[in-house]
Fold these 2 entries.
Entry 1:
Amino acid sequence: MEQAGPSGLLHVAEAVHWTALTIMVLVYTIRLFWLFRFKAGRDRQRPGERYGDTSLYPALYSMANVGMPWVMESTRKNIPFYLSFVVFHIGVAAGIFFAIVGSAYRPFVEIPVVTYVLMVLIGAAFVVAVGRVIRRFARPVLRLISTPDDYFSLITLMIWFGVGVAAAAYTAGLLKGEGYWVAYLFATSFFLIYVPFSKISHYLYYPFTRYWIGRTLGHRGSMPPAIARG
Amino acid sequence: MADRNRSYKADKMVELLAPKLTRQVVGSLLGCVHCGMCNEACHYVLTHPDDPKMTPSYKADQLRKIFKRHFDWTGRVFPRWVNAYPPVTDEDLEELKDIAFGTCTNCRRCTFNCPMGVDTATLNRIMRGLLTRVGVMPEGVRVVSKDTWEIGNQMGVLDEDYIETLEWISEELVDQVGGDEQAAIPVDKLDAEVVYTINPREAKYDPRTINNAALIFYAADENWTMPSWGWDQTNFGLFSGDDAMGAASWKHLEEKFKELRGKRLVISECGHGYRSTRCEGPNWSGTDQDFVMESSVVTMIRYIREGRIKVDKSKNSIPVTFHDSCNNARSCGFYEEPRELLNLVASDFREMHPNRTENYCCTGGGGAMSMSEYTPRRLKSARVKADQIAATGAKIVVTSCHNCVDGLTDVIRHYKLDCKVAQLVDLVAGALVLEECAVIRKKAAAKPEPGLPLQGRKILVVDDEDDARVFISTVLADAGATIIEATDGDQAIELAGKEKPDLITLDISMPGKDGVEVFRELRGSPDTAAMSICVVTGHPEFREVIYAAHAEKPDGYMNKPVSPEDLVTGVHRILELRDKKE
């Protein structure tokens, strides 16, 4: 009988990881079916005078909004916050990449450059996450609107980033013990299952909400927005 | 899923929410991550920094809680996890009323500042609609809604008062343009090019704007009309969230417009009226837009571009700034046209900052002017607007919205700013150069110019003596006539048949075919028999010969020498008599 050691646990972690990923895809699919069961609103008026645009352009512009901080006053006037958003979400992408590629083809994430880049990106996101947790607790406005899910999602993401940094350090040979990687895979699995039911699923809706608001306002003529000038 | 202790009204709201859940709405309900980016977009937040409940996402969360508790997975299973606490008691609904109506003007500024594309203003409007449907609303909203349903317009203007107002505006306008009856406002005229609809505030409190619009239509020589009912382009359904009322109000307009067989529905300057009529009405009523609608701002620009009205911007030299109505700019993309027009009619235009999509609300929007219980909070929130206006140094704040006129007037009064509010129609009317507008040009072209009594007349001057012929021709040409000359009888007969002059001055004593023969031939030919002929002769003894001829007598007779005045007066009188006879 083979003794259950770190390698056995890793095997379990990887199996759980892929199962969780499958569940996430399944739940997301069901979520989208659910969303599309609601009727689509329809604009019955003619396009707005002169600027009305029924093409896809306003909707695509709206979807690209995330990469154009200058078009919204809220980001234009708060560039540090916008940059922290960018760092945070790049960190999320790097963390997911690290978990999936690290499971599917580990030699790639063991390339020193890749490992260190991932460690920096996830580490930076960890710092931002700490700041965001503090911000959410410190600002009365955010305390008022925050739900337990908001706090939980943010804190667990912060922990996930932290474990991710440790797992990257282990991969780079800076830390000893397979446990960091195993813990990272279990943490990622947890998220894969939890995310579709939490606020973190906002990225699933993002393309749709931005597309719809862009299409609606574009038809009327107010998307793209007119930035203050003169 | 009903909570056991929930009131009937609270229960009903859940039921009423279901049909309002389109994909777009659900997307906005799901999309918020509570990041707080919308916070500083809101004028209520900026002016109430110590009150976190002013934040837009908190206001939208009130609807989100109902949605999550009853429609979303996580909220149905773990309501506490996502704060899915919907209203339970009627007291909760009263609190919601204060949030939805008293802390938000639905200006949509937060919508444009949300990274996720959450349309918080629309969510707040839906909340208003749910509350209104269960009878929970500010008293002002109740009164206006009642007037809209019962009388057909949101200010309860009775038909007879409206018609009477148009009549006295017409009388004043006719006097204003020197008695021209064409300036009177046509009511219920069929097949007009323009059917003009207004805000009831104009009929009730500010008829000057109707007068100015009518003056502009008159100046442009427009074929226009105003409907006797179905004239209220505003729509309180936008503010109260009541889609059914919104649809009914829009239907009034549509049905009357089609009854009048109008070509173009023109909407006077009103932000929410423009949005309701132009954008939302067809959606609320489930009717595809199948006729042309436009803002009066666009109409006025067209008149200037086409040269139908002439404006002189130096007549509006006081510094002006422009306030973008939220509904025009953020919900309809209507922000460049007013600026284009303003630059044509005012010489010192200064931008307000921020502007266009990013402008701040006048604070009177979203029906706030009708909710007096929230006035102190509204005026406090107006500090942002007051600062914006003051920074421009302008003496006139121009806006294309009646709600904004009232809202800004309140702001100016409350913060003691040294300026006043006007609308574009006022500035255009003030800049008109009426004498160069289409209506005056057309009238001028239709009648002779004063001092040129024979303008547009063609006269054949028949005389063999050069001096006499040149004299008569010159005098009549100076009086505006077009002259053809003949030096003998044959030429006179030929030219008369060919040129068909309005009148012939005929000399009697001529070599060859003399004037008497010419006269007989002209009268004898069907082509020339009816022509006016004035005999001008230095031989009065031949007069008897002419009058003895068996033909229609000459239309006039003059002895040589004749003075220029007598010649012109005589010819003019002959032609006038002929015109009257015709």
Note: Residues 7-31+72-220 of chain A form a domain with the Fumarate Reductase Cytochrome B subunit fold (CATH 1.20.950.20).
Entry 2:
Amino acid sequence: MKIALVAAAARHPAARPGAAPALQPITLRIAQGEPVAVIGPSGAGKTTLLQLLACALPPAEGELQLDGINPWALPRRELQRLRGRLFLAPQVPPLPPRQRVVTAVLAGRLPAMSLWASLRSLFHPIDMAAAQAVLARFDLTDKLFERVDRLSGGERQRVGLARALLAPAGLWLIDEPLSALDPTRAAQACATLVDEARARGVTLVASLHQVEMALAQFPRIVGLRDGVLVFDLPAEEVTPARLAALYAQHEDELHGTAPAPPVLSSDAAARLVGATCR
Amino acid sequence: MSAAGSAALRDPAWLGRLFWLCAGLALLWPLGLATEFRPWVLLEPDSLRVSARFLGDFFPPSLQPDFLLLVARETWRTVAMATAGITLALLLAIPLTLLSTRVLSISALSGRMAAGPFWVRQLLRWLMIVLRSVPELVWALVFVRVVGLGPTAGVLAIALTYGGMLGKVYGEILESGDGQVGEALLRNGSSRLQTFFYALLPQNAAELCSYTVYRWECAIRSSVVLGFVGAGGLGQQLDGSMKMFNGAEVSTMLLVFMALVALADRTSAWLRRVLQ
């Protein structure tokens, strides 16, 4: 899928009216099948950019075009159909704790499945071979029938990524896919995503905290800071000086470890409701 | 400790708490007057004698075979009435929940919900308020006139009131879980029902089940009250025995109720363990 952002800015729905937009007007064109890494310190607007591209957030100004079409000019039903051709993987893998891995992975296919087929799949998974194959790409073959809450944080994150491989999408928007993975797994997962995207002609936009990984695996790097596009360059032109400027005052993020992702606490929340609603 | 030190250690929230405690007591006082709340009346010798005589009749519970057979039949009818009522209520509540819950709104994915869906949800919410704000006793009195004396009136009364209650609470359970899971599926183009079955249901199954079983328990209790207005079941027998001052029969039936409530309690605990 071809992306064009024309002077598009974004703000969070919950932001105060006077607050600066999370993403200043930005112009960006990404060709079909092109892999792009978005880097920058925390709070730079990387997630907001991905949400903007995923049609999760309408641009506050400017325009987004996917394959030459402005999705926000479409009727709601068409917009939802278009969303079926995008895949946004949030940083915290959105998996119900009590679901089995096979179901969680096959959920990536839902936009391409009828309601009847998706119900049948809950009863007896319809394409276990496909689920198994994508899990194998992330070294999770033996976890097919495991429950999500029995997995480690890194395994959950990889299940979330495996879901992308089953989605009927032409654009993958992956937010911090490696934040809970050890270096070896991170390199493997990153290579899998880039290779698969290239093999299928899927456009891939991933935000990354691991700068070395981004430079090694992605040909094109977009640097964001404070909601502003700082650079948009081929990987070989991203010099240490540019990186130092991008991460000024956030040097620990450039060299050290990425901040840990927030912990999923749905169970605690669910229990709270149970206590209050009767 | 110096004076400055003790000033720094003064809890800024303390005065507020004291104020709300006093305000709460001041508000409760007129409520007590309005409800003529005088618990000490219970301990006066006259009242004690009356209560003792009434409760004394309860022992021993009536265990005559004829009566036990009758109780068994009426218990079965009560359980059937509660179960049928809850089932009908579910048929009403599930569509209402799916249509009214905010987490399944596609237009709300990107900020504010659109006007059309917002008003549909609002209307359904009002409908549920109407359904549950009319007590089941009133619904039963209406239906007794329409379909005549018997359990059918009770079943319909429970179905309407409980449909409203279940719809509201189901919606709230779905809304207060972790919204991110369902949101992610909707954002990736899944339909509302697919999102419900793949995200909201596995996340909230235990809560939904235990609330449903709890409502079944409540329906058993309501069916007693409904029996008093002629909707049949154990309630009607209880009403008869009370009017005849037959404490032994009353206590037998109360024991049956306790057993049913305990059964519901165990079922709910078991379901939660299985779904956890």
Note: DSSP finds eleven helices and nine strands in chain A.
